[in-house]
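Input (structure):
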């Protein structure tokens, strides 16, 4: 049996559109709605929401086998307004620990609680070379020294508040998406690339007239970056769960952008040996380019479910993402490998 063909053009358009929808943890509704609209095209799926706001798509089939689940998260790193300074600029509280140097000078949108948005950019508070000289390079890049300069006429706290900005408003960093030679360079490929993998797998299977051998739940989770996304939302009769999330690329890592990776161990410990074996056998059967790896600073949504008491076999697979939680990059080869792996898993018992 060969796997259904993946429409790579569709994949690219979908992932670029999703990357361009701001969705820091806690402010994901537009991104969830976007995925929901896309998945509503497939009559095979029953869509629902958890109370926490995650999207669940169930593809039900008649089978004696217990259902399985796959999850990917649509929430990303970001920030909220922590303080409005006396000069009208903003101090931020980061969501999920974005690295300050990676967003210095980046454009941001501030989403006010009244539904308006204000443009701005992230700067160090000693930015002007003609004012601060060498201090501009020496100032530590941390929560105290990074600020948002708004593209609006304000030089006081009062004027900034008059723009509708309040403490706690969502701040989204521009993803800066570029597609070149099969590479996708963008912030927040973690984990929107893998949401695209799930959607592309569903589309390819549905359009080829094929379907999973047992019922499957797809959970598009919305609180992964703060550690508890998939803690809820996986029904208790699910026997196996696959977390689809980025693989770690960099010094000392086996993963790269051109393969999918099976993570054996991360900060939360080893995954499930039996399910790992099954996934390796499928990769070999279908010639899916894959690696195995160990991630040093990493926890997955599947582990959040385990910690919450979830009783499933759990594995973690995903495409290699270079410079994760920084200015990330993926390649179509790794993304296709991951999508194929998902289909191979669902089409075989
Ligand atoms: Zn992730």
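Output (sequence):
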């Amino acid at each position: 049996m060969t796997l259904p063909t993946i429409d790579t053009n569709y994949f690219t358009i979908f992932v670029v559109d999703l990357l361009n929808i701001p969705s820091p943890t806690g402010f994901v509704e537009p991104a969830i709605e976007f995925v929901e609209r896309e998945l509503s095209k497939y009559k095979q799926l029953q869509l629902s929401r958890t109370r926490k706001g995650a999207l669940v798509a169930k593809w039900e089939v008649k089978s004696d086998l217990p259902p399985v689940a796959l999850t990917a998260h649509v929430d990303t790193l970001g920030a909220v307004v922590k303080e409005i300074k006396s000069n009208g600029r903003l101090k931020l509280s980061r969501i999920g620990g974005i690295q300050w140097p990676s967003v210095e000078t980046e454009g941001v949108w501030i989403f006010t609680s009244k539904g308006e948005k204000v443009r701005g950019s992230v700067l160090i508070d000693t930015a002007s070379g003609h004012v601060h000289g060498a201090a501009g390079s020496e100032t530590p890049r941390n929560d105290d020294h990074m600020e948002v300069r708004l593209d609006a006429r304000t030089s006081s706290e009062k004027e900034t508040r008059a723009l509708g900005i309040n403490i706690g408003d969502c701040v989204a960093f521009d993803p800066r998406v570029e597609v070149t030679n099969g590479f996708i360079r963008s912030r927040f490929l973690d984990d929107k690339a893998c949401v695209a993998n799930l959607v592309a797998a569903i589309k390819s299977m549905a359009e080829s007239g094929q379907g999973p051998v047992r019922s499957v739940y797809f959970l598009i989770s919305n609180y992964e970056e703060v550690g508890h996304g998939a803690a809820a939302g996986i029904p208790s009769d699910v026997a196996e769960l696959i977390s689809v999330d980025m693989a770690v690329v960099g010094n000392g890592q086996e993963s790269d952008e051109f393969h999918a990776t099976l993570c054996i161990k991360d900060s939360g410990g080893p995954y499930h040996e039996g399910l790992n074996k099954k996934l390796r056998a499928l990769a070999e059967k279908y010639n899916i380019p894959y690696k195995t790896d160990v991630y040093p600073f990493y926890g997955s949504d599947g582990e959040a479910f385990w910690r919450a008491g979830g009783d499933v076999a759990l594995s973690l697979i995903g495409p290699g993402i270079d410079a994760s939680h920084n200015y990330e990059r993926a390649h179509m080869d790794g993304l296709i490998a991951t999508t194929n792996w998902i289909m191979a898993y669902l089409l075989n018992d």
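Notes: The mean pLDDT is 97. The pocket of zinc ion is lined by residues 73, 190-191, 224, 245-246 (CB under 6 Å).
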